[in-house]
Design brief:
The chain is an alpha/beta fold. The chain contains eleven helices and ten strands. It folds into two domains: about 60 residues, no CATH class; about 240 residues, Rossmann fold (3-Layer(aba) Sandwich). Helix content is about 40%, strand content about 15%. The longest helix has 18 residues. It binds S-adenosylmethionine. The site of S-adenosylmethionine (SAM) has 23 residues, from loops.
């Protein structure tokens, strides 16, 4: 303590604990660096008062919201981990579609979707898989065919950050270097319209903007949501993706969030985590195919050559 105030280091530790408790983001050199940068600008008295005020506020309060925007990492792009997306298209989706051929309704959750690339990516994959399932050629424009077929596809994208959710809702992405199209996205471009230049070409530095086509956009909705405390109202998703999100969380929070996912899955849903994420669920089948791993309560994919399967038991309490 310095006079009546805690030292900067002590307040920093209090704030780190509070951030982990509320949003699951665990202490890391990056987080400490970002918080220290904020602290540097303020005198000790102001830091103490600010953190005391934050601790008294609800996690949805704008003060927390704007603070948390500075801490989250939003790195994302189309066709991230192409191999995983290829498996979703060629192995996972066909089985889900077969399983839903009576109900004709597919719902998918992109949890921690950042600015929406993953959610739109998966919407395109779902449309293409459905076209294949219905034996429709890719040259036919999907909108009419899918509407005529009676199928519905619903993708929900959620993220802690309001700022990225706003970007996702616009569905507009640029070709800036290291931006949304940094991977090979040739296969996706016909799902976008090139936006009319709003600035003269000589001032645009060659940057072009692409708007996701209205039909794909109409399949996807976004909302701001803290994974630690909330989930969408949809009961059973056919697929849940949570990639490159849980790496920032401690094991206990990973397990709690994965259990929450499980409670939103029916018997044949697929859960897809990031390539470096471990699964903390016991009662789950694990499938591996061509370098892609996914999890399911039941074994739709058992007969696929190359999938490996592990089954163990989880108690009901662990699911809640
Ligand atoms: C690195 S991005 C991953 C985006 C996308 N899933 C991908 O793989 O490209 C991680 C996202 O997780 C979000 N996030 C972090 N903590 C969260 C939480 N507690 N609840 C919801 N989203 C969270 C961040 O705001 C960020 O947009």
């Amino acid at each position: 303590m310095n006079g009546n105030y805690f030292s900067k280091e002590s307040v920093l530790q209090q704030l780190l604990q509070e951030v982990e408790k509320r949003y699951a983001l665990q202490s890391s050199p990056t987080l400490i660096h970002k918080m220290s940068a904020i602290f540097e600008k303020l005198p000790l008295e102001a830091i103490n008062e600010w953190v005391m005020m934050l601790r008294s506020l609800n996690e949805d309060h704008p003060e927390w919201q704007s603070f948390i925007e500075n801490l989250t990492v939003h790195e994302t792009y189309f066709n991230r981990d192409q191999n995983v997306l290829d498996n979703i298209k060629n192995v996972i989706m066909p089985e889900i579609l077969k399983n839903k051929s009576q109900e004709k309704r597919i719902s998918i959750w992109s949890a921690g979707c950042s600015s929406g690339e993953e959610a739109y990516n998966i919407a395109i994959i779902a449309v293409e898989s459905l076209m294949k399932h219905l034996n429709l050629s890719h040259s036919q424009f999907p909108e009419k065919n899918i509407l005529d077929s009676g199928w519905t596809i619903k993708i929900i994208g959620t993220d802690l950050s309001k700022q990225v959710i706003r970007v996702a809702e616009t569905g507009v992405y640029s070709n800036a270097i290291m931006g949304s199209f940094r991977s090979n996205t040739q296969n996706l471009l016909h799902y976008f319209d090139l936006k009319k230049e709003e600035v003269p070409e000589e001032l645009s530095n060659g940057i072009k903007y692409y708007q996701i086509k209205p039909f794909i956009k109409s399949l996807v909705t976004f909302s701001q949501m803290n994974l630690l405390s909330k989930s969408p109202s949809v009961l059973n998703f056919d697929m849940i993706l949570c990639r490159n999100v849980l790496i920032y969380f401690n094991d206990e929070n990973k397990k709690n969030i994965q259990s929450r996912f499980l409670s939103h899955m029916h018997e044949h849903s697929a859960l897809i985590l990031g390539t470096v994420d471990s699964c903390f669920l016991d009662n789950i089948n694990v499938f591996n195919h061509n370098g892609c791993r996914w999890y399911s309560k039941q074994s739709l994919w058992n007969n696929i050559h190359g999938t490996k399967n592990k089954v163990s038991v989880i108690s009901d309490q662990e699911v809640n």
